[in-house]
Every structure is written in C-alpha cells, then in structure tokens.
Amino acid sequence: MPYLLIAPVVLVLAAILGYPIYYLVRLSLQRYDLFALLQHHGTYVGLENFTDVLRDPVFQHTLVRTIVFTVANVGLTMVLGTLIALLLVRISTWVRILLTTGLVLVWAMPPVVAVQVWSWITNSENGVLNYVLTELHVGNYFQHNWYETPFWQLTMVTTLIVWGAIPFVAITVYAALSQVPHELVEAAQIDGARSWRVFKDVTMPVIMPVLLILTSLSIIWDFGVFTQPYLLIGQGHQDPTNYLMSVYLYIEGYTKTEFGRGAAISILMLAIVAALSVVYIRRMLRAGDEA
Amino acid sequence: MRRRRLGWDALGLVLFAALVFPVFWMISTALKSNDQIYSFNPVWFPRHPTLSHFSDAIHRPYFWTDVKNSVIVVIVTVALALVLAFFAALALAKYRFTGRKLFIVLVIGIQMLPPAGLIIPLYILLGDVPVLGINLVNTLAGVILVYLTFALPFCVWTLRGFLLGIPKDLEEAAMVDGSTRLGAFVRILLPLVAPGLVATSVFAFILSWNEYIFATTLLHDGKTQTITVWLSYLYGGNRFVDWGQIMAASTLIAIPVVIFFLLVQRRIAFGLTAGAVRG
C-alpha cells in the first residue's frame, strides 16, 4: 500500500529529475555543442571537459569568488536576522506586530520584482540612494555608478540578497526564541549574569539547532544563487570578472551552447552543494525519525 | 526598564522603516507623475497620485498573455503537485516501509539542488523528449513539468508534517464504525488536513509564479513567456528608462504573492525547519 501511494511521485521525479541527472553525466563526457544538438549526437571525449574546466583559471576564480560571496552573504544574513529576532523579543507588542508585518512583506517580494526596485533605487541618474547619501554628507554621490567594478556589483547583489533573506531567518529564530525557558533567563539575570552571558549560555543552546539548519540552508541557497546577480548586474554585463557559480555555468554552458562543458561544470557544482547539504539532511532526517 | 524598552521600540521602528523602504518606494514611484519621479529632490509621497503608469504597464504588449501563461502554469502545477504529494505524504506519515528513509533523503535532497545545475540536461531533453519524440521547449507543459519536480518535494514534506499532527485514534475510530481505510481517510483526514493543503498549495503557487531561470531558458517569446520573464525584460535597451511603468508593473506582479504569503507565512517557516524547533 505505501508503495502504491509514493509511486506517482517517484515516477515523476525519476522521469524529470532522475533521468536528466543521468543524462547530465553522459553529457559531461561528450563534446556537445550546437551542431551536436541539431544532430542529436555528441562525441565521446572521456574526462576532457572536467580536466579542462578544473584547469581553467576562470573556473578557479569563480569558485573562490562564490565561496567568499557565500560566506559574506550567509554571515550578514544570519547575524542581522538573529539580531532582529532578539530585538523582536524585547519590543512592545504593537512595534513587534508592525516589524513582523514589514518582515513578511519583504519576504514576499518576488526576486525579479526586488531586482527592479533595487535597480531603480541604486540608479545613477535618479536613484534615491545617491541623493540620500549626498544629503547625509557621506560623500558626493551625485550620479555615482554603483556598478562600476565587480566588487561593487557583487556588493549591491549582496545587499539585495541579504535584504530578501533576513525575514526568513528573523522570523524563524524568533519562533525558536519562544522556546527559551523564561525562568532560566530570569534566574541567570538575578544571578547577575550580563546579557551576553545570558545569550551565550541560556539562549544559544536552545536556538542552536535552528541556527544550524538556517545556516546550512542559506549556504546552499546563496552558493547557487542566479536570478539576483544575473539580472541586477545585467545580462549584458556578465563577464569572467564578476561571475558567480550559477551565472558562470549558465553562460559557459547554455548561452555559449557548450553543453558538454556546461554539464561538467554542473556536476562539479552539484557535487559541492551535495557535500554542503549533508549536514542539513542529517539534521532533517533526525527530525523525521523523532516524529 | 521602561526607559530601555522605549529605546528598543525606537530601534524597531527605524528598522521597520529601513526594511520596508524599498517596497514603499516601489509603490510611491508607481503612483507619481513623471516630473515627480525624475525631480532632483525626491518627492517622498506622491502628490496627486496617478494610475497612468499602471494603465501603461497593462497595455504593454504581452502583459495579459503572459499573466495568463503564469496563471495556467501556477494552477496546473499546484493541482498536480498537491494530489501527487498528498498520497506520498500519507505513505510517509502513516506507514513504515523499506526505502522510507531513502525516499525522505531524496525528498529533502532535491530541494537543495541549485536549479542552474539542471538547466542544460532539461533544456536538451525537453527539446526532444525521449520515447515520446516531442518538443516541449517553448511550451507551458515543459515548464510545468520542471516546476513539478521542485514543488513536489516541499509539498510532500510539508503535508507529511500536517498528517503527523492527526491523532491515530481518530482514524481508528472511523474504521471501527465500519468504514474502509479509504472512507476513513476521506471523511476524517481530509477535513483535518485542509489547512495543510492550503498552505502547501500557496507555497507551490509562489514558487511557480516567481520562478525565473527555467522560464527564461525554456520559453522563448512573448507569447509563451511567464509574467516574471516579461518583467525582467522591462528595463529595455532604450536610453530613457520608464521607472514609473516598471514600478507599476512590479507592484502588480508582487500583489498576488504578498496576499497569499500573508495568509500562510507561519506555516511556510514551519515547513522548512519542521522538527528543528520542537521543544
């Protein structure tokens, strides 16, 4: 009976996910370009695509850049999200409702919409960001171009991603904080523990599992992020100096119709993400067993 | 103590303003006339709000066609995902069977796959579907199939959580009354799991409405595009960027998501970390 129930899902997943992954492996061992696509037939080249990609400095730089980018994004998201969650515990009810509503509103923004809003705010001609920074005397930002260098392009992508990711972290951590026993916090405070000590020794252990899951989820998401960098930096402005992994893969493999090479990059990327996912999956499995 | 809370409240309000500002600015720009949008000193609140940008946006080529495409994709994906996922979730929640663990790993693991990693094989395979020999590139059916794979795992996992919450006694009580397992399921389980079904379908809705990378790769022209891809092209190549229109269109596309999101936000957070927070 249970097999009958899961059969449809298994079949669908096998057909539209299992087979493509098998096909991806086959593809990665072939030279498969546009011509091959039309012929429906590639040439077997063994591991050539992999050795090519691994030796390619663009791949190496992209990998390092993506790791740095991921660390920065996840770090900022987790720290800011947790701080906001801690703040939510301390504020009056009406401010909490207001702030939570704001968080949900931000959370709900579709990524493509958020990209458009960011382009408008950071626009060099009429963007409100330049105006505000100039008015606040942070410096002269009149017609400042925020997308001048790869570093700044990716910094702007970071602000966009962190803004969009904070709500999920803040709201989830806030939910976890409600599990922290009140008496324990008060007892610690009466004992004269400083707020940092209370946080570290009482609060942290309780919310740790949640923080771990959120961190691993964020790592996996940010490592594979595509829509925001691709659209915010602009399709025409993607080049080896600002590639993130997904964008690199998309342009090298799909746009340039080097499907075999793209398949090799895909497999390398999937392998990295799979390794990163182990922690998360093991946690979720344990949760699944308890239930 | 009271003094301190006032300080936190003030900080909370500042944060609220900062977080919500981009959303506010989107709506405010959409409602302003062009001279206010492009004035040197920004006009914070629209004076004499106008809907002209909205009407420009919805009269652009393909707006309604692409909204229709998105709606079709969303409805079919949600319906299929819900039905298929429900039975699988039932199996996971109510039975122990060999391969159960493997199936769970699969369900969680698939959600971790970066979509970009699957673009190439899916593009080629959908262009010439094995066995069937048809071309699904540039059709909504192709996109729906792809979305289904990404919606299914989440739906299975979330629904399983809801089904677990239903006490076994209830089910058994129904069976004692002489009904079959199926009868028990329909009369007792279904009403109880309804909120779960709503939450799950809203998630699948948002996922397919927002999706960009597969839609832009698999759908090649205005007639077959989804509304998200339509919006991404709005920047255009012109020297003059019509920000009022872009913000109006953005607002329109965000509205359905915001509405549905507010309905089920708690449950989505629950689904992603289910089990982690349990006391």
Task: Describe the secondary-structure layout.
The complex is a heterodimer of chains A (291) and B (279).
Chain A: H1 2-28, E1 30-31, H2 34-39, E2 43-44, H3 48-55, H4 57-90, H5 93-108, H6 111-121, H7 128-135, H8 150-177, H9 182-190, H10 195-223, H11 227-233, H12 245-255, H13 259-290
Antiparallel strand pairs in A: 1-2
Helix pairs in contact in A: 1-13, 3-13, 4-8, 4-10, 5-8, 6-11, 8-10, 8-11, 9-10, 10-13, 12-13
Chain B: H1 2-31, H2 34-37, H3 52-58, H4 63-94, H5 100-112, H6 119-127, H7 140-164, H8 168-176, H9 181-210, H10 213-218, H11 227-232, H12 243-273
Helix pairs in contact in B: 1-12, 3-12, 4-7, 4-9, 5-7, 7-9, 7-12, 8-9, 9-12
Task: Give an overview in words.
Chain A is globular, with a radius of gyration of 23 Å. The longest helix of chain A is centred in the first third of the chain and has 34 residues, at 57-90. Chain A has helices at residues 2-28, 34-39, 48-55, 57-90, 93-108, 111-121, 128-135, 150-177, 182-190, 195-223, 227-233, 245-255, 259-290, and strands spanning 30-31, 43-44. Chain A has 13 helices and 2 strands; from the N terminus they run αβαβααααααααααα. Chain A folds into 2 domains: 1-46, no CATH class; 57-290, MetI-like (MetI-like fold, Orthogonal Bundle), CATH 1.10.3720.10. Chain A is mostly helical and 291 residues long. A two-stranded antiparallel sheet of chain A has the order 1-2. With 279 residues, chain B is mainly alpha-helical. Chain B folds into 2 domains: 1-50, no CATH class; 61-273, MetI-like (MetI-like fold), CATH 1.10.3720. Chain B is built from 12 helices and no strands. The model of chain B is unreliable at 273-279 (pLDDT under 50). Chains A and B meet through helix 1, helix 4, helix 5, helix 6 and helix 8 of A and helix 1, helix 4, helix 5, helix 6 and helix 7 of B.
